[in-house]
Amino acid sequence: MIKLSGNSQHVIYRPPSEAKSFILRVTEGCSHNKCTFCSMYRNIRFRVRSLDEVECEIQQMASFYPGLRRVFLADGNALVLNTDKLLAIMKKLHVAFPMLTRITCYGAPKDILHKKPDELKALQRAGLQIIYLGIESGDDQVLSDINKGVTANEMIAAGQRVLEAGIKLSAMVILGLGGQQYTNSHALNTARVINAIGPTMLGVLTLALFDGTPLKDAVDRGDFLPLTTRETLLELKEMLENINVQQPCIFRCNHISNLLPLKGVLNRDKAQLLADVQEMLEFLQNNSYNHQNINPTHF
């Protein structure tokens, strides 16, 4: 990962697929920063970086890597910037890096919905190729509980708007986010939202509990019951069984948080993915693990 220097000392986050990208922070932190499970920007005061700051970073990087091809606009939701400023930044990137082929960013659902379709199309023409959208869950109760700030229907509208603009959509959902109480509705409604959007790529993570987050506090109080290993796999199975996308979707469930690494293309590889999940369930059943919780959410 090519990082930029910047003045802040906090960790810079990016999707796994952006490991070889220049991480250009156009904001610091996350403008929403209220999701109960997320610790990424919890102690970071949100700030929009000035165009001069960003341009300085671009010129510094260009002096070392003029042949750079990929840029990821950080931090948590670059699309909170007004479209004119984003277009100005992207223009400077293309001038500084003549071989640039790809610009990507995180996109919060509200920020996407605040962009008019023509604005998103302008960003696509300027080189924005992928927006990473944290769907997290398709269940309205779960979305409310985690303080995501949108409903499932708004999440669908945001995802569809990205795709309609000709931008690829990489969506992310989190196993176990509804706990034991909402595991079935979380699985079924998340599959429903995925079907309605039809993302280009779908990444499945497993819930991680971080100290200092409201969700971890709820677990410590006994107000939220996390899934066991077996329950997490059953939720994944139910979700996969109900996903039926109309266009090919690259599927990845191989994040470090996942017990069972999976990858394939939906719907093409759905049967094999389900068979792999079932095999792991049977392994747990036939071994001592079936009475233990070895879920990596607790690592």
List the helices and strands and how they pair.
Blueprint lengths: L21 E4 L1 E2 L18 E2 L2 H14 L5 E5 L8 H14 L5 E5 L2 H6 L2 H9 L2 E9 L3 H6 L6 H13 L3 E8 L7 H15 L3 E6 L7 H8 L7 H14 L6 E5 L8 E5 L3 H17 L13
Parallel strand pairs: 1-4, 4-5, 5-6, 6-7, 7-8, 8-9
Antiparallel strand pairs: 2-3, 9-10
Describe the structure.
This protein has 299 residues and is α/β, with parallel strands linked by helices. Helix content is 39%, strand content 17%. It has an eight-stranded mixed beta sheet with strand order 1-4-5-6-7-8-9-10. Strands 2-3 form a two-stranded antiparallel ribbon. Helix 2 (83-96) links the parallel strand 4 and strand 5 (102-106). Helix 7 runs parallel beside helix 9. The radius of gyration is 20 Å and the shape is globular. The model is unreliable at 1-8 and 294-299 (pLDDT under 50).
Radius of gyration: 20 Å
- pLDDT < 50 stretches: 1-8, 294-299
Number of helices: 10
Q: What is the straight-line distance between the termini?
A: 25 Å
Helix and strand composition category: alpha/beta
| Beta content | 15-25%
Strand order of the largest sheet: 1-4-5-6-7-8-9-10
Mass-distribution shape? globular
Average of the residue pLDDT scores: 91
How would you characterize the largest beta sheet?
8 strands, mixed
Proportion in helices: 25-40%
Number of strands: 10
Compressed to H and E, one letter per element, the order equals: EEEHEHEHHEHHEHEHHEEH
What are the defining features of this structure?
single chain; 299 residues; alpha/beta; two-stranded antiparallel sheet; 10 helices; globular; disordered N terminus
